[in-house]
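Q: Hi! First time asking for a complex rather than a single chain. Here are the components, and I think there are two in total. Is that enough to go on?
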Amino acid sequence: SQQGEEDPQALSIQEGENATMNCSYKTSINNLQWYRQNSGRGLVHLILIRSNEREKHSGRLRVTLDTSKKSSSLLITASRAADTASYFCATATIQGAQKLVFGQGTRLTINP
Amino acid sequence: DTAVSQTPKYLVTQMGNDKSIKCEQNLGHDTMYWYKQDSKKFLKIMFSYNNKELIINETVPNRFSPKSPDKAHLNLHINSLELGDSAVYFCASSQDHRVGNQPQHFGDGTRLSIL
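A: Yes, that's all I need. Here is the structure of the assembled complex.
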């Protein structure tokens, strides 16, 4: 089964509001990463949070990690139309092959 | 300059044909990847190469054959294309194969449509 699963699958909010997306995973991880994908484009790395970190900020992005619950959240504050995209979490497991496992993403729409 | 570039951007072809997708990165990275993204946006790794050596082969049908002539290039050749091969194929690269410690850089994808 899939390692990372995002929730919700789709989110539509008004410009200026905050957007929160969640990611759950199943096995122990080294780190967790969030990526953004604009329509018709490749994935762009946003932020990496290590398993020993609980929170990380980058500009308007805030990521939390709760390893006891095997979950992470991505908060985008003061959303803009340009934030419209799909957002994916990706995990790298401690054991097994060195690969990133992606969830199916949250499709975020910011309405002007 | 584009960091990871792949060609072509679109590929429309008939079932049974053979086609290739090319990828180049100018980041000086050691590791490159091929991913397949299906119509539901699910992204799954197919192959990864580190310094021209295959390190991950995710039980992909042997109709798919990656080739890395040097560490800056990773091409994907697909034989006898099937309808189920229709997807967007992404190339990516990272500094090295320790995926736990670093981001990956993606190309803009090749949208493959099988008629």
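A: Chain B touches chain A through 26 residues (CB under 8 Å). Let me know if you'd like any chain examined more closely.
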